[in-house]
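FIELD: query
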Amino acid sequence: MARPRHGAPLTIVVKLGTSSIVHEKTHQPLLSTLSSIVEVVVHLRSQGHKVVLVSSGAIGVGLQRMSMPSKPKNLSGKQALAAIGQGRLIALWDNLFGQLGQPIAQVLLTRGDISDRTRYLNAVNTLQELLSMGVIPIVNENDTVSVSEIKFGDNDTLSAITSSMIHADYLFLLTDVDGLYTANPRKDPTAKLVEIVSSVAAVRAEVSTATLGSSLGTGGMETKLIAADIATAAGVATIITSSKRPETMYDIIEYSSAREPLSRPESPNPSARASPESTALARPPHTLFTPSETPLRDVKAWTSHTLNPAGSVIIDAGAHKILAKRESGGRLLAAGVLGVRGHFASGQAVKIMVRRRPDGGVEDTDREAAHYSIGATTTQPGTPNLMATASMSRRSARCHARLRARI
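FIELD: result
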């Protein structure tokens, strides 16, 4: 469950996919959905909560502006459409929020921005300052300058990293279905809603994610599982629910936390207001991913989920066994390093790989449960002197290390 806050303001990240922003066929903005989301977000702000909106849709809006029938396959074409659409997208948000007197700010990020520790901290400070000013940051990936090496890949991942950056209480992944199902509910009438997930790794065997997602977006349900893994490891309660009824966010927060009921905007119709006897909530449709009880924070969260490995360091099983022990201090002797893959420079991230299979193959250390620092020195001539720091998340997809190698 989400951390009880005893009535204190919450920090909430709301992510909207392209399918919730523009029509898949006509590419016209879904104004009724967007207006409803704006009303909900502004009301949350009026209750003292801090809200960040992660918005996809730049390419979809660009398609509409250029009257193009489908998204191009080449990178430069997608980047050009993103450049066309991003300005119109933020103008649309500014117009909708402006009608309710709510200031917004555009924040465009790439993975390169947050892979560098200094730039990452600058982004964190900017987001925190905007929130303290009562501004709603609208975050998107800077698709115009992103290439495959520095892309988040999808805004689900970006929203999870944003949630970790600002220590959010909730991440809402709003989409065109109302939760995670055992199968595609559009095609399989026997599909069942998964209500609570405490382990993303365990639930993968129970659900099918391959067929969900629109032709305009870059993600689907699989990317939402990855995002939930990142966010919950950072202590963020993550919810998948429908964008068609964004007001259910009130009920979901109330239902999944120990807080006092959130107030709602009053209905102008007195007969529509809830009576004292009708205030008990049924469970609103959604999937809740419960946050880790021992969340990663700050440097560990940054190292685990934001660094983009430039290569791999291959170690033997003995070195890994010693390295995984906290009492080792994370010291990696160069004698345990069997080789490297790729090219990397001082300060870049690398993945730790372990050679322990009978066929001589290597495995990465994704499954291990450890957080550690690596520092290694050697007096053997001709071997590298490794000075590194690393972090490995229980729930992250990869183990990363910051490695400085000197020969």
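FIELD: remark
The domain at 11-295 is CATH 3.40.1160.10 (Carbamate kinase).
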